[in-house]
Amino acid sequence: MTTGTQPGLRYYDGADRDRDRATLLVTITPSSLFDLSVSYANGRENFDLELMRARPRRLSADIRYYFAAKIGVGFGLLYEEQEPTDEL
User: What is the rounded distance in angstroms from the CA atom of residue 84 to the CA atom of residue 88?
Assistant: First the structure.
């Protein structure tokens, strides 16, 4: 029985991965009506089978406004990049 794929192909979703990541999160709440959050993450990913090594970086910013104690609305921006690397 054949699956219809090439036997020599390697897939990211089927490969084991080691991931290390550190995140710094800062939230400022100047009043009970809104808050601001900024986060930065930096890490390292190593896929098994030597598929890829990468250094992902992520920067995000969020603002939330609260109409009442449990009702609010928010807006966020996210920038993320994957930089391929030869490091282990």
Answer: 11
Query: pLDDT tens for residues 34-77?
Result: 999 999 999 888 776 666 777 889 999 999 999 988 899 999 99
* 17 touches 23 (CB < 8 A): no
Q: How far apart are CA 15 and CA 71, in angstroms?
A: 42
List phi, psi (to 5°) of 51: -70, -45
Name residues whose C-beta falls within 8 Å of residue 21's C-beta, 6 or more positions apart in sequence. 41, 42, 43, 44, 56
Task: Domain ranges for the chain, please list them.
Answer: 17-84
**R_g (Cα) of the chain, nearest Å:** 20
Nearest to 78 by CA among 55, 61, 57: 61
Q: Give the mean pLDDT of the chain.
A: 83
